[in-house]
Design goal:
Helix 1 crosses helix 2, helix 2 runs antiparallel to helix 3 and helix 7 packs parallel to helix 8. The relative contact order is 0.17. By secondary structure, the chain is of the alpha/beta class. 37% of the residues lie in helices and 20% in strands. The protein folds into two domains: 128 residues, Enolase-like, N-terminal domain (Enolase-like, domain 1, 2-Layer Sandwich); 220 residues, TIM Barrel (Alpha-Beta Barrel), CATH 3.20.20. The radius of gyration is 20 Å and the shape is globular. This is L-alanine-DL-glutamate epimerase. It comes from Rhodococcoides kyotonense. It holds the Pfam family MR_MLE_N. Its cofactor is Mg(2+).
Length: 368
């Protein structure tokens, strides 16, 4: 038994590698606060986890909330076997319902711990590697049509073959952005127009009339599922759902009632690797493709995503993000490292990376 004795909680800032990250509705940032945790056990074993919420305007979560939640349910984890994921989640739920994003960091750390104890990389514990490597996507921050087209040209030259193009403001201007990007994207490039729920129903109707003929996916055009359903009936564009999918019931509903063929799954929204694997497997069983990522993050988040991507069938994987390519700070030697637009999962036990705690400074607080 690997009884948890200590939980160290660290904070550090992740700056965006391409200047300013801009989404719909005026949401923009050059940096995000990330929360890292180290779970240590009586036998000397330990595991690392991370959660970075993309400020407080992306979903109902923020860095301070993650840290407060950890202080709330953290003491209940002391003495629990850190390799028993069921017991870990039960202990957290016994104190605090919800707050999946805070629990995500604990879940990732316990998977890391489990892998290290077993002497196996996480992709082996998650069912086995199905892809030795996989294509990565990058987000195109919302800007002028020319600037967004230039971003796609530059990153395509670096090997990126999939882009999530940020839209969700004025429909006519968004259409110009998408046409400009589609014109310069190399053949075979995957383009996803992501409004992040930023359009009203009327705006989304206007937008799809202007972009319906483009070779793109349409992601979460409106905040409300009912509005997305109206839009789906007006367009031939394949639809990806993201922010609205939180539970398995949501996933079944957007597939059967809305006709979405793809879903974007995020670690923080689903409570970590455990919840994301469940939702990934359900989506694949229904014939959907999946995008795998988190709201934001560094080396630890990237490693967690990489193992889930490696265990996903190639034909079911729409896109994957390596956030440590998007950010400047690296606490685990910039691993896992992408290569010309492709990623792979580490092969060492657990997450397969080693965090340098000295780069994080002193813990914000310790639960012991």
């Amino acid at each position: 038994m690997s009884a948890i004795t200590t939980i160290d909680v660290f904070g550090y800032q992740l700056t965006y590698a391409h200047g300013e990250y801009v989404m719909s509705s005026g949401r923009a940032a050059t940096a995000q606060d990330s929360t890292m945790i180290r779970i240590s056990c009586a036998d000397g074993s330990y595991g690392w986890g991370e959660v970075c919420t993309l400020a407080g305007t992306y979903w109902p979560a923020f860095a301070g909330g993650a840290r407060a939640a950890l202080q709330e349910f953290g003491p209940a984890l002391l003495g629990v076997d850190g390799t028993n994921l069921g017991a870990v989640h039960a202990a957290m739920e016994s104190v605090l319902m919800g707050h999946a994003y805070a629990k995500s960091a604990v879940d990732i750390a316990c998977w890391d711990l489990l892998g290290k104890k077993a002497g196996l990389p996480l992709h082996e514990l998650l069912g086995g590697r199905m892809q030795s490597d996989f294509p990565l996507y990058e987000a195109v921050p919302l800007a002028s049509p020319d600037a967004m087209a230039s971003f796609v040209k530059e990153r395509s030259a670096a090997g990126i073959t999939a882009f999530q193009v940020k839209v969700g403001n004025d429909p006519a201007e968004d259409a110009q952005r998408l046409h400009a990007v589609a014109e310069v994207a190399p053949d075979g490039t995957t383009l996803i127009a992501d409004a992040n729920g930023g359009w009203t129903l009327q705006q989304a109707v206007q937008a799809v009339r202007l972009i319906d003929g483009l070779p793109i996916y349409l992601e979460q055009p409106c905040a409300r599922v009912e509005d997305c359903a109206h839009v789906r009936r007006l367009t031939t564009l394949p639809m990806v759902m993201d922010e609205s999918v939180i539970t398995a019931t949501d996933l079944v509903s957007v597939k059967n009632d809305l006709g979405a063929g793809s879903v974007n799954l995020k670690l923080g929204r689903l409570g970590g690797i455990t919840g994301m694997r469940t939702m990934r497997d359900l989506a694949v069983s229904m014939g959907m493709s999946v995008s795998l990522e988190d709201a934001w993050g560094g080396d630890v988040t990237t490693a967690a995503v990489s193992h889930l991507a490696a265990t996903t069938p190639a034909e079911s994987l729409l896109s994957v993000s390596f956030f440590n390519d998007w950010t400047n700070e690296h606490v685990a030697g910039y691993l896992p490292r992408s290569a010309f637009g492709r990623g792979s999962a580490p092969t060492a036990p657990g997450l397969g990376i080693e965090v340098d705690a000295d780069l994080l400074g002193q813990p914000l607080f310790t639960i012991a």
